[in-house]
Amino acid sequence: MELHPRPTGGEPVPWAFPAPERTDLPNGLKLLRVNRPGQQVIAVEVCVPVPLTAEPEGLEGVAALMVRALSEGTEQHSAEEFAAELERCGATLDAHADHAAIRVSLEVPASRLERGMELLADALRAPAFADAEVERLVRNRLDEIPHELANPARRAAMALSAELFPADSRMSRPRQGSEESVARIDPAAVRDFYAAQVRPTGSSVVIVGDFAGVDLDAVVERTLGRWRGEAAAPAVVLPVTADDTRRVVIVDRPGSVQTQVLIGRVGPDRHDMVWPAQLLGVYCLGGTLTSRLDRVLREEKGYTYGMRAFAQVLRSSSAGDGAAMLAISGSVATDVTGPAMADLWQVLRTLAESGLTDDERDVAVRNLVGVAPLRFETAASVASTIADQVDQQLPDDFQAKLYARLAETGTVEATAAAVNAFPVDRLVTVLVGDAGQIAGPLKELGIGEVTVVTA
């Protein structure tokens, strides 16, 4: 019997994260494009530099409600008609507001790009903000908040932000607003916020996909090029400050069978030269199933299904006043919370005493650098990353150079960055669980003063 010859691998093809081509539009909008042959679903990201600090005091959450309302009807279409038009051209539209900026995202087949861009432009240029639709979104948001408070991971994140940042800092409060602030938002507040903040001048649009047969400049000019408006007054953005004095906060949930763990502090953002080493070191500590935290807490002790360490940019700025959240998160059974925290701290101490191994460093580099081409297979992933660079005021070649820096980073550098990211004497620990069972063991560990708050 003759079998078909076994296929063999081809020659490796050099890969690098693509650099966008830039164009300035007459209305002040910056266009960044990346042609990706074969990507028939085109991704569009609009970055509007409106930080959460631009929200009026007492109306936190108005930015999130405003971006949700962008797709709830325009001057030309009701909410139902707008949704039907998006569906008709096979497009999806999404938006969110974050500490650095507002983002509006569109994915649309290349064959229907212009129609999708028309709908996107209408949402940005002439949203209806109908009273009934905004009021419905406010009610929806108020309904979401109790569910968020009931979610241990979300509750831990809220508690950590409130602990780390000053009370007058926007970062200390929920990104989408609290029950008190959202309840004060009405349609007029949403319209006023849009009128004061959302402008093409200073904004950017990232478009990634297969542009074969598409006159992209003409399409953009006929759609987003019609968006008009003078530059908005810049929002006041203060340097990020945080208090990482060592302490433990327990959000009491009597009867809870698990304890949600969130340990964090504020550290350098992507503009800092230590970022590649920090990214590598934190990945070795808790970036994957083979990391130290999982190896000890999951594989050896069976305390958890997974414990992760990560660095999440909060706000990044070329002025040097940005920051990233450095955190360790996961959950453990209530009855082993004390031993699990003891072992977690021992992992951090061992890291500082003996460092990472070359094997740990090599595995992390292979995982972070080697899989990069797979991470960026879709147009949406490329567009989102370029938009992140725009929001964080990074150069267009940042992501491409990051992989080279990761490959060049040695074990000693990665160790030092990880130890500096999680110093055992400068960590704020939040635990959501049964305080009656876990407070005593936590006090005995001596990892910080223990405070119990109600859920």
Relevant terms:
six-stranded mixed beta sheet, Cytochrome Bc1 Complex, Chain A, domain 1, alpha+beta, 455 residues
Q: Would you kindly provide a written description of the structure presented here, covering whatever features stand out?
A:
- The protein is α+β, with helices and mostly antiparallel strands.
- It has two domains: 21-226, Metalloenzyme, LuxS/M16 peptidase-like (Cytochrome Bc1 Complex, Chain A, domain 1); 247-454, Metalloenzyme, LuxS/M16 peptidase-like (Cytochrome Bc1 Complex, Chain A, domain 1, 2-Layer Sandwich).
- Helix content is 42%, strand content 19%.
- It is built from 17 helices and twelve strands.
- The strands form two sheets. The chain has a six-stranded mixed beta sheet, sandwiched between helices.
Average pLDDT number: 95
Radius of gyration: 24 Å
Distance between the termini: 70 Å
In spatial order, strands of the major sheet run: 1-2-6-3-5-4
Categorize the overall geometry. globular
Q: Order of helices and strands, N to C?
A: EEEHHEEHHHHHEHEEHHEEHHHHHHEHE
CATH class of the largest domain: Alpha Beta
- Number of beta-strand segments: 12
Largest sheet: 6 strands, mixed
The CATH superfamily label of the largest domain reads: Metalloenzyme, LuxS/M16 peptidase-like
Short structural description:
42% of the residues lie in helices and 19% in strands.
Give the SSE layout.
Blueprint: E1 21-24, E2 30-35, E3 41-48, H1 62-69, H2 79-88, E4 92-97, E5 102-109, H3 113-125, H4 131-150, H5 152-164, H6 179-183, H7 187-197, E6 204-209, H8 216-222, E7 247-252, E8 258-267, H9 275-286, H10 292-300, E9 307-315, E10 323-333, H11 337-354, H12 358-370, H13 372-375, H14 379-391, H15 398-408, H16 411-421, E11 428-433, H17 435-445, E12 449-454
Parallel strand pairs: 2-6, 7-11, 7-12
Antiparallel strand pairs: 1-2, 3-5, 3-6, 4-5, 8-10, 8-11, 9-10
Helix pairs in contact: 1-4, 1-7, 9-12, 9-15, 9-16, 10-11, 11-17
